[in-house]
Amino acid sequence: MRYFTENVSAPYFQLCKDMGTPIIDALIRARILELRWTPPVTQDIPPMKPEDAKDLHRPLLIPMTGVLRYAMKIVKEEETQKSLASA
């Protein structure tokens, strides 16, 4: 979850490099994550911050549904709290 930004997106190639392409592609085939090569026409995800604008032309992975997006946000928050508690 450390790869996902505040708007719950992650760079495809970085995740493939770190976790392995077969794993990431399986998450896409299982429709857990969606691969977006270009910015969407409609904004169903929160707008990106200016410092994230450099990633607009790179493929991003986002959760397929709002429920998955919310679940990933909760898991990311819990992971952040655990890392702060252990520090």
Task: Give your account of this protein's structure.
Helix content is 44%, strand content 11%. By secondary structure, it is α+β, with helices and mostly antiparallel strands. It has a 3-stranded antiparallel beta sheet. Helix 1 crosses helix 2. The model has no long low-confidence stretch (mean pLDDT 78).
Tell me how many strands there are: 3
- Spans with pLDDT under 50 lasting ≥5 residues? none
Number of helices: 3
Distance between the termini: 18 Å
Largest sheet: 3 strands, antiparallel
Structural class, from secondary structure content? alpha+beta
Q: What are the SSEs and their pairings?
A:
Layout: E1 10-11, H1 12-19, H2 21-29, E2 33-36, E3 60-63, H3 66-86
Helix pairs in contact: 1-2
List keywords for this structure.
3-stranded antiparallel β-sheet, 87 residues, alpha+beta
Short note summarizing the structure:
The chain has 87 residues and is an alpha+beta fold.
